[in-house]
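[job 4471] stage=fold_predict status=RUNNING
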Amino acid sequence: MVNKRSLSGAFLNLLLSSTLLLAFYSTSPVHAATSWNVQTVHTRAAGQGNGYCPIVLDSNNVPSIAYTGYDSMMHARWNSSLGGFSTQKITIGIATDMALDTNNNPNILCEAFRADVKHASWSDASVMYASWTGSNWDIQTVNKNYTVYASLALDSAGNPHAAYSTGKALMYASRSGSNWTIEIVDNGTDIPIHLSLALDSNDKPYILYSNPDLKLATLENSIWKIQTIPLSHPIIGYGNMVLDSKGNPHLSYSAIGVGDPPTITIMYASWNGFGWNTETVVSNVDSESIASLALDSFDYPHICYVNGLKVMYAGWTGAEWSIQTVYTDLPACGPVYLAVDSNRIPHISFRANPPGEGLFSRINYMMYAVASEPVPLYSPLPLQLVLTAVAIGAAAVIVYLWRKE
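[job 4471] inference complete, writing structure tokens
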């Protein structure tokens, strides 16, 4: 015979075991194999220089890529009727960054030869800004001093903003109408050329750079405030910075790992409103490539990088990093760039060495890769649903036992 005390014990045991079981199954992320569609955009991309090839997506998730061709700076846009990319020559120069305006027109920063210099060499290159009007490219000079990298962002009115380094100073340029205003953000004995600029929803600029520690400059009441970002590992390089839906900065960087010789660790850092959180994305990387970061509609991070001359991708599921190999056919060279569309599908641009050519070939392939599906999300069942299911199951067992009694 079953008494009430034994029924109570049975109910409690069932409640506990069912809760643990349901919690386990509801918090286990499901992984699915992802395939990658890889295409050659251009077979005559420049093999010299730093190989910048930023990729951006328009409001319809259509990709555009800015890169340096063998004899001209180039812009490529996906053409669905061709099933590939349509390309345009812009000017002689090196593309460094790109953004799209509200009409999905490309705006590109580049290093280009000044028209006022005869027999120009790269020491006569300037920071230039090229914008597509719908029928032609309008090209303006931002700064005539020699630099080799500049980062671009467009504000809410469509005005361009640029950050760049002269090697000894971090500069910030903004255009209103047809006039550019240039100011010094930071002076230093050694400010590397690589940096990243972003504007928040109020058009407040954020600039990520190193001097030599990793720093973040923000403009507060017309005064640049600079903070050093505390990192858990010694930094050897960093990628780009992205602002999330709350205006908090996120960034990727490469750190010195363990081993002899030491390996490289890809790290991810984010500001939570009170302090910086850092975590390891992947260890034992053997390439010092720039890791590119993008955030999806959930503010989840996605990172692409090069490891062993292979293009790699890491996507955050909500519980862990899903690491995938994107491309292995040819050696990847230079930085890789990443954009994530509104469906959380990653798009990657990178350069690859042609067959039979060395790593320092003068001609590379401009490549594009897109995933067949997004990384599966970690989706725990709501606590209320779990408890309801447990209660229903427990009640059914109690009714059954009472009837047997």
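[job 4471] summary: The chain is about 10% helix and 50% strand.
[job 4471] exit 0
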